Known about the structure:
The protein is α/β, with parallel strands linked by helices. It is built from eleven helices and ten strands. It has a single domain, classed as NAD(P)-binding Rossmann-like Domain (Rossmann fold, 3-Layer(aba) Sandwich), CATH 3.40.50. The chain has helices at 10-16, 36-45, 59-72, 88-100, 130-145, 147-152, 187-209, 234-246, 257-260, 262-269, 301-315; strands at residues 25-29, 51-56, 77-82, 109-112, 158-162, 215-220, 223-224, 254-255, 281-283, 286-287. The strands form two sheets. It has an eight-stranded mixed sheet with strand order 3-2-1-4-5-6-9-10, sandwiched between helices. The protein has a two-stranded parallel ribbon with strand order 7-8. Strand 7 (223-224), helix 8 (234-246) and strand 8 (254-255) form a beta-alpha-beta unit. Belongs to the short-chain dehydrogenases/reductases (SDR) family. Keywords: Oxidoreductase. GO terms for molecular function: oxidoreductase activity. This is Retinol dehydrogenase.
Amino acid sequence: MSHYNFSSEGKAIVADFPAQVKGKTFLITGPSEGGVGAETAISLAYGQPSTILLLGRSLPKIQPTIDAISAINPAIHVKFVTVSLDSLASVRTAAESILLDETIPKLDVVINNAAIMACPYGESVDGFELQFATNYLSHFLLTNLLMPKILAAGPGARIVNVSSMGHLFGGINWESLDFNKGKDYHPFVAYAQGKTANVLFTVALNEKLASRGVKSWALHPGSITSGLQKHMTKELYDDGYSWLAKEGRVASARKTLQQGCSTTLRAALDPALEPKDGSIYLSDCQIVTDRGLVKPYALDPEDARKLWALSEEMVGQKFSF
């Protein structure tokens, strides 16, 4: 059993796996200053990666992360790629720029970290419910478009999907992904749907990529204070606490950013982790087997295949590899 736990910190995990970081290329979405994505990137800088690609909406929000990486090791090739995850066209443009960039021959690790949380009802540029589109569907498209460079990294490449214990609030609303155009919308339930989709995406990726040696993990990073909570109100917090109480659970203690990025980094780096028998979800740096902490509906292979096919239909493209 691994010694990692709630209190483990990202930089320590990077230090434990030097061969999995040095000279490697990492891609991270949502690395804005003060968030888990930024802390993940900054922690990786201590392990001498070759390249870190930072994908976000606005360079001013990402520049502090770039500066922090350069201060640790100016030899790292840090590249900012503009992407708006509420637009499939923007995702396609970002992916194309990476595919055409000859300085990026491969992607060893893709970390789908960006998210929004419990926002008021809204729709993406393409007309999809905003949390589902931003937190899941755009990452589905981005990852699949970048698959040639992920596969170019060979066996050992990783795809890490940052989910959340928020998936416990509900699964996929198969009857209406947009909650009847918002008429039946609840911010937490919609957040849960997107985060459940992240886990099902991981199930499907492992099934499809097993023969290639590429592994995928989903995870709950912990409760961390960051910009993710900007839409949270007292009413929403109270709803969450009440729901947890009904489940016989309590809200987890807050983590620091260093503690918050550690589970992502173990998923990205530890070669001993094996996604098998449905064990593809981590929390507190450990594989979760308690079905009270990762719901069976998030791990169902049939639902994972169903969501994949539905997602292909939504983005208007089929993927095979």
